[in-house]
Fold this sequence. Notes:
Elements: H1 2-20, E1 32-34, H2 43-65, H3 71-82, H4 85-98, H5 100-110, H6 114-120, E2 133-140, E3 143-144, E4 149-158, E5 165-172, E6 179-185, E7 191-200, E8 220-230, E9 241-252
Parallel strand pairs: 3-9
Antiparallel strand pairs: 1-7, 2-4, 4-7, 5-6, 5-8, 8-9
Helix pairs in contact: 1-4, 2-3, 2-4, 2-6, 3-4, 4-5, 5-6
Amino acid sequence: MAKTALILVFAALLAVTMASSSFTFSRTKTLQPRRVASSSNDLCLTCLNFVDQALNILLNIILNEGVVGTCGKLCSNLANKTHNPTLGSICNILCDIVGIQEFIKFIEQADLDPFYFCELIPVCPINDHGDAKILSFVATPTNGTQGTVFELVLTYESKNGTGSGEIDLGITTVDGIPVGDNEYSPAAKAGQYGVRWSVKAEPDPSCDPTQQECELWLPGTYVVDVAICNGECGSKHPHSAIYDRARTNFTLN
């Protein structure tokens, strides 16, 4: 009963979180995905965003300060170090759900895998019998020149539903500079689903080559790989798997 009450409080806090912070769970996002967003009350997504920002910092606090007596002390340290009281509030609620000892154990156990951590809490639904079969993955058009907008369209089907996971997309470019996207994929029922990305094949005018590598979109063939995953793609933790993969390509003349 107490755990249920805390999760309900977590849901209530979510409205405040969304108003005060711009959380975006995406580590390699350089494209423009277009898909139906999950509910604004998605506790799993809120936890993933929290972990993406806070887990490494929490791990350092635990390693550097040793025994942390209470959820309040640990989460207060997090809020102070990040100058973000919202992170501290979410930390407190997640920690209170399981208790300080379990919370610290899960932080160390997760090995920076946000899905696994949020499944341990638990706020991300688990489905170890899930599946997803890619029906099609195409690029439209298949040929173009620099400046062309390519649509990458993925359709897939699940017969047993899916667990909380992600869809990973990567483009092998002519100049070898990584271009890709990790999209959160909420646990879903059996059915057919689709995701669409738009890729404008032109150099980003805001990219500073003195600060980072900038994709030039040179003439040639661009290979695009996609994977639908249960949990984090490539993770070795429980409740993680690659459901299916596919590949397509487009050419710049």
